[in-house]
Amino acid sequence: MNTAAPSALIHNLKRLAVLRLITCSGIALALWFFGQEPASNLQRFSAWGILILMTLLSLLNLWRARSNSALPHEMFSYLLIDTLLIVALMYFSGGANNPFITYLLVPIVISAATLSWLMTWLLCVLAMLAYGGLLFFYEPLASLEYQLAQLGLSQHIVGMWLTFVLSSLFIAYFVVEMALENRFQSQQVAQYREQSIQGEHLMLLASQAASTAHELGSPLTTLKILTRELRLQAQDEQTQADLDLMHQQIELCKDKLKQLSQHQQLEQSSQQALHLFIHHALEQWLLMRPTGQYIWQTNHSTSPEVQYPQVLQQAIINLLNNAFDASQATVELSLSWNRHHWTLNILDHGPGVAEEFTLPSAPMDSMQGLGIGLLLSHSSIQRLGGQVTLSNQPQGCLTSIEIPFNVPFNE
């Protein structure tokens, strides 16, 4: 079944309306030019009445498309009405001798491209039967043959030209537009497929992280006990300070594992000022990386209130780790915002990224800290409606985090 999606149906209705208006204009000009010779009132009134109905139908299509209220099978109804109106118009204007009868192909082609095979075959059979009937039953248009003879043309030649014109207009407008839309939909499908693959990788990482968290509990407990005993036996202050730092890092690891097991990173943090949210992330980063250094002019006392899940802080920490690992030097931070989103820039003084570098969709090996951390950060920020971009600067690599305001986190 090839039934068009709602968005595609709206676009197709607009195209059908425009194409019908073009056709009505061409037929109206032909009737005006060839209809100067005497013809019965029934022929004249019927032909112009049908053209008016086709024009009103086009306006109805445009209105339905603009109101976004088109029904799935509405397109077939319009194509069926088109076929019947064209058959009626041809009956009163020369039947199969009228070159415009080739327009009967247009509803069939549109149906084949947008509707199901059953609907297409119904229109096809109807058009073939109508064409055959118009060979024998029609109201002759005497002025048509007379005017063409005056110009030294035959109906056959004029019919071939009109067929070419209608076919060219149809291909240039309707078919090309549909091809572009199909190409756009193919790109969307490719993006969805890439996101699906990325989601599979994240699920594997989540399963591995849960298993690793369970296995690390016992070794960390053992290290904590040994560290406590070594602190009691330490003789000098430097060894005591090193053991205190080791104990602090072990406690931090146990807290992180506890949060992971309790799924606290998916919960919303309390509402707070934006600069405080960033400041808390920096505090967490320094606890994990005591040697880390950063420069940030915190003059944002009037920053907007925000509320984001804890996983966003972890994403920022991962990107800070990447920046610090790349340069082992002070990281420069800047924060800005507008009505719609806020941006955190992280500038390191490392070698930068390769020109062909793209954000990973799967775990990757790297000596510069652009592997799993960047993958998880990018995915978390994407789920918040934001984005991460990396660009080379004269001073090093600039990592930009852009997050919209008031976007709920979707699990």
Written account of the structure:
The chain has 411 residues and is of the alpha+beta class. It folds into three domains: 6-153, no CATH class; 206-261; 268-404, Heat Shock Protein 90 (2-Layer Sandwich), CATH 3.30.565. Helix content is 63%, strand content 9%. It has eleven helices and seven strands. The protein has helices spanning 6-34, 41-66, 74-91, 105-114, 117-134, 142-150, 155-233, 237-261, 274-288, 310-327, 372-383; strands at 272-273, 294-295, 305-306, 331-337, 341-347, 387-393, 396-404. The chain has a five-stranded mixed beta sheet, with helices on one face. A hairpin with a 2-residue loop joins strand 6 and strand 7. The longest helix is centred in the middle third of the chain and has 79 residues, at 155-233. It is rod-shaped and about 120 Å long. Mean pLDDT is 77; it is low at 1-5 and 407-411.
